[in-house]
Amino acid sequence: MTYKITALPGDGIGPEILEGSIEILEALAKKFEFEYDLVTKDFGGIAIDKHGEPLPPETLEACQNSDAILLGAVGGPKWTNPKNRPEHGLLGIRKSLKLFANIRPTIVTEATAHLSPLKESLVKDTDFIIVRELTGGLYFGEPKYFNENQAVDTLTYTTEEITRIAHIAFKLALKRKNVVTSVDKENVLSSSKLWRQTLEQVSKEYPDVTLNHLLVDACSMHLITNPKQFDVIVTENLFGDILSDEASVIPGSLGLSPSASFGESGPSLYEPIHGSAPDIAGQNKANPSGMLLSLAMCIRESLHQPECAQHLENIVFNTINEGIATKDLGGSYSTSEVFEAIKKSI
Ligand SMILES: NC(=O)C1=CN([C@@H]2O[C@H](COP(=O)(O)OP(=O)(O)OC[C@H]3O[C@@H](n4cnc5c(N)ncnc54)[C@H](O)[C@@H]3O)[C@@H](O)[C@H]2O)C=CC1
Ligand SMILES: CC(C)CC(=O)C(=O)O
Ligand SMILES: [Mg+2]
């Protein structure tokens, strides 16, 4: 079977980390003897410049006809029109492909604990997954507008939206340590009251899984003071966005954290959790690890090559442990030097 992949490099450091990762995929496919067809499409700010919109129909169609999508990052100071921003393309693709479940893992082994700015003893053996609801909540709620005197965003969740993401979290926990921590703001938000109530309801179908609840403000503290307590964290769109950037500090850098987004069916999307990093774009300084670990998730989940995925993950961490790392991890290597070292290891 030849899998179809659409690559969306996007803006800023997006092309820098995705183009090198595509070369790594080529090398891995040769070694592990599998085939794929890859097309690259305009997306984000570059698509606004070339086609007048961040998610042109041709790009969406290519994604819809793919098994997997690899995405760099979008956005930047050049595109500030509130009605036509690169970020709208990102929300658009997630909604159009119904990618409601965003999986963001945080893993720290004995070998990688030294990379964290936090105490090694505190982070060693951390292994949790944030399951972020990705197509509801504040980013999508209507009405949404701003004028001179007032701005409105709407936070809406339905029982159906909460139920389907809850099932993802519980099923994941069954394959892990059987603990789900649901994060909300139930003390003040109506949507969080429904969230908590629905999580309790769904939990009845998973008697072997323990369900805990945390308010989001306290969770943000627990995450970096005792990250080992978590197994699966499930939360709504905005909280998951914020908590996952915070969680990226635990293994060492925002540039290290991967993600995968799934729907009920259709293509899945793989992207690092960081943005286009305009402050370092074009300088060959970006850490490509988050992109490469997202590629590994793609190879495992969409290309069904678990050995290859494991091989890539091992190489990414071995390379860093050999000291071949970018500045965000305390190293002095460029993006292209890291890619070269990884290619050699394959
Ligand atoms: N999935 C996406 O495409 C996302 C896009 N964005 C967009 O990206 C743009 C920039 O947003 P920021 O708030 O600056 O967030 P950012 O995630 O792009 O950068 C935050 C900080 O982390 C650093 N950083 C990020 N990725 C890195 C990497 N791979 N290696 C080394 N350092 C890295 C940056 O240099 C910066 O100092 C905005 O337009 C934002 O809307 C933000 C988050 C996600
Ligand atoms: C445009 C934002 C919602 C992107 C982002 O920060 C994310 O998905 O992590
Ligand atoms: Mg984010």
UniProtKB/TrEMBL annotation:
Its cofactor is Mg(2+); Mn(2+). Keywords: Amino-acid biosynthesis, Branched-chain amino acid biosynthesis, Cytoplasm, Leucine biosynthesis, Magnesium, Manganese, Metal-binding, NAD, Oxidoreductase. Substrate binds at residues 94, 104, 132, 217. Pathway: Amino-acid biosynthesis; L-leucine biosynthesis; L-leucine from 3-methyl-2-oxobutanoate: step 3/4. The record marks 139, 185 as: Important for catalysis. Residues 4-342 form the Isopropylmalate dehydrogenase-like domain. Its EC number is 1.1.1.85. Transmembrane segments: none annotated. Mg(2+) binds at residues 217, 241, 245. The keyword Manganese applies. Homodimer. This is 3-isopropylmalate dehydrogenase. It comes from Mammaliicoccus fleurettii. The lineage of its organism: Bacteria, Bacillati, Bacillota, Bacilli, Bacillales. The gene is leuB.
